[in-house]
Amino acid sequence: MVNRTIASEGDDLMSIHVTNLSKTFTEDEGEELVVLDDIDVTVGDGEFYTVMGPSGCGKSTLLNILAGTIPMDRGEIEYAGSPISPTDLPVGYVFQEPRLLNWRTVGENVDLVLRERDLSKSQREERIVDVLEMVGLHDERESYPLRLSGGMRQRVGIARALAVDPSILLMDEPFSSLDELTARNLRDDLLDLWKSTEKTIIFVTHDISEAVYLSESVTFLDTRGRIFHQSEIEHDRPREPDDPALLETEAALMKTFFDHMATIQSV
Amino acid sequence: MYGYLGKRVNVGYDSRLYQPTLYTLIAFLGLWQLLSLFFSPRDLPGLVHLAEITYSVVSGADQFSFVEHAWITTQRILVSFVFIMVIGTVLGITMGVSKYKEFLTVPVMIFLTFPAVVWAFILVMWFGALTTYFVVVTVTVLAVTPYVAVNIWKGAESIDDDLLEMAHSFDLSTTAIWRHIFVPALMPFLYSSGRLAFALAWKLSLVAEIFGSSVGIGFVVHYYFGAVRADMIIAWSIPMMLAMFGIERALKIVEKRSFAWRPEVDDVHSEVKTA
């Protein structure tokens, strides 16, 4: 089943290299909060790359920087072999909450992100039909988001991100507010999408079993904003969520995580 | 939607409200009729007498022309309404999103506490009671605008930062953000402010007319106050009350229509679908 190569060497054509990335927020009281401290990240073309970490570490900040919504303080980003400003990275963003316009239909929500691009009406139409088909919501095009279940709304969010045809899909804990059954369905559908579209996915989660189940590579961030561990997940696909081998990997990673947290807290 | 017997009924418009409303109305009119038996018709007219004098007012049989006075009052309400909505909306959005909000919030709150009667007296003293629009419209606008501003302000503050972040991550233009996020997010607040402004504008225009005008329904009411004719005051108020109630309901229906996306508004298809 595994016919994808794990892109760890970083010499793929469309890979992303982030080097020396730092970000500090100044809080209201004037206190400085380092959320990303000299991060180096390499994501290969088509890789499923997961960033794990406790709440409050810089996971989401990393995604927001890559999405171009917040500026970085320091660092370089290289894409497809040349330096690039994060605002120019070809990304689609799936958020923790669906973040849909509740006053627009499912179809209009997808169309919204297409209008700004140089596309003809028929091209836009084709995209909308395509992406709704991909996430299994072609029948709900005229529905308003508040009439859909949480899982369906999250699917609309995924469709919207796919609509801009990004090479890179940024996903910020997209399934964390769903019930486990719905989340499992969506995870499997996401893996199918990943396989069929060959997109690079940068996925953020605090759920270790989700990370192990989905990813090719898991990177751990700590509360100081540093990467302290990186692991390739080499289990064959399709994986079973409750497979003992996966659980073993999860346990080992959790141990690494807690050992590390203990050392930084004792300092 | 369920009828009062618990049977499921598919009707577009609030049918379950009709019957309870009807009962209340009948009870109210019955009580009125009963009380009127203990008073002189000049103080509290019976229903039949009230209907007669109201008809005589509307048909022009009264010493004051209903059409003339009602028309001028309506114009004042409409002109005030436009000013209130425009100024209130601009103030409210500025208070909600702009960097000048610190300068505006406290003054608006102070204006909110200022009694309309005080405005009326001051403006009549300054400008006299003979202006057709100026005094009445100004009093109404000064008294009502702060309510609208506060309402819109809350709306502007409630705009979801997460949606704006989403818009930025997908590179939406400022025009698109206004058109698809700001304006629709403010729509519920604009509608509720509009209905509030209308209801308040009609009441305050009348107050202003009593003190500051020699024409309009408020002026006629003031005249009959001097003549100790409570029945005529009621008869002159009823047609405008009904008109304002009708306008308020009409606005409400337009509002419902434009919010099809909110499940609680349209009960017929509101069952949430499962994934």
From TrEMBL, chain A:
<feature type="domain" description="ABC transporter">
    <location>
        <begin position="16"/>
        <end position="249"/>
    </location>
</feature>
<dbReference type="InterPro" id="IPR003439">
    <property type="entry name" value="ABC_transporter-like_ATP-bd"/>
</dbReference>
<protein>
    <submittedName>
        <fullName>ABC transporter ATP-binding protein</fullName>
    </submittedName>
</protein>
<dbReference type="InterPro" id="IPR050166">
    <property type="entry name" value="ABC_transporter_ATP-bind"/>
</dbReference>
<dbReference type="GO" id="GO:0005524">
    <property type="term" value="F:ATP binding"/>
</dbReference>
<keyword id="KW-0067">ATP-binding</keyword>
<keyword id="KW-0547">Nucleotide-binding</keyword>
<dbReference type="Pfam" id="PF00005">
    <property type="entry name" value="ABC_tran"/>
</dbReference>
<dbReference type="GO" id="GO:0016887">
    <property type="term" value="F:ATP hydrolysis activity"/>
</dbReference>
<dbReference type="InterPro" id="IPR003593">
    <property type="entry name" value="AAA+_ATPase"/>
</dbReference>
<dbReference type="InterPro" id="IPR027417">
    <property type="entry name" value="P-loop_NTPase"/>
</dbReference>
<dbReference type="InterPro" id="IPR017871">
    <property type="entry name" value="ABC_transporter-like_CS"/>
</dbReference>
<keyword id="KW-0813">Transport</keyword>
